Amino acid sequence: MKLQLTKTKTIELSFGKGKGGGKRAKSADIVGVELFSGDARGVPAVRLSRKKSVWHLQAADFVKGPPGELPERWEDVSHRSTWELPAPFQAPHAAIAANSRFSLFSQSTADTILQDMARGIPAGDAAAAADAGKKRLSLRRNEQAPAPAPAEGGAAPKSLPTPGIPTATNGMRFTVKPTAEEGRSLEAALPEFQVLWLSRLLPEGHRPTTSSIQPTEAALMASVLAQPFFAEVGGTALVMFMLPNRVIFSGYKGGLPVLWRHCPVGGGHVAMKNAVKRGLGLDDEMVKSVLEDTLIDPRGALEPFLGPIFGELELSRAYLTGKHGMNIDKVFMMGLPVGAAHVCAFARDSFKIEMSQPGVFDGLQLPAKGEVAADWAYLPALGAALAASGVTE
Fold it and tell me: What is the pTM of this model?
């Protein structure tokens, strides 16, 4: 589903059948990027091309980010930035996964979504955004940015948007998609002024052209849809994303989303490494060595950290089994840079959960140089490209 900006620009949230189960891709050559992730190495970028029904990873690297920051007020939209990607990433089309503190992405009931639409931009930031919007700033000659409706006390929508059809309300652009559970939908939203700024970031008339803008969470959820394991299980799976600073459980049933849940305890893989560092009294380099070496068992330091997380994972698995009749024999983990063997062993021995971590680019034809370093950091960029390419439709 898409939020239409112009004839060629959308916010896109796309789900469906995995590899081999969808229609022919709309774009056979596309670059995906994740903006404003805070990664000191730069902007994660991947370029995918489709040749004879096979996806090729043409390039993957950290590139220099755009000048400036993502605007947080309407008045800053006029400070236009232009960003040119390096030659290996100048595909015809670009899909942007954007990190924004204003973004919304959640699995919610109709009442909650209507409340979010009525609220608009999150409280505390709404007044500044609304005041700035009243200035109707000129962005180009004879072109103006529309002012948003008041974010606080705005008109409450009477019904949910038609699935896949964008709705602009109270300064935000919303789209919804029903999940595999009746009465619940995924909602995705970004502020209109950020959508406008992002849509014009790449210079017009040059490759690539921005064709899709997505909240990072939506891109992350789509990152597994071309995985061989996803096709093998018929699109019915539970995935644990182990991100730098958070853990997310994502469920799929027959290729459709059915669960999106932030783990309320523990933390991401940065916190995991810190737990081992404190528990064993090691420096950073030794922590990495211990987590890479399967001959050393760091379970004493890992158990207090992983135990609560796996307790929450069990709740998610029980929900999928009890509510949706899903038989989850194996959980797939994505995003952990080091220590996957220890985490999988802990899952098996302490919780009787079979777990594996596929490679981020499994199922893709890799470049001649082979493996990509720090592949875990490319998940949102990959998901953005896959969702926008049409591989999941």
Answer: 0.85
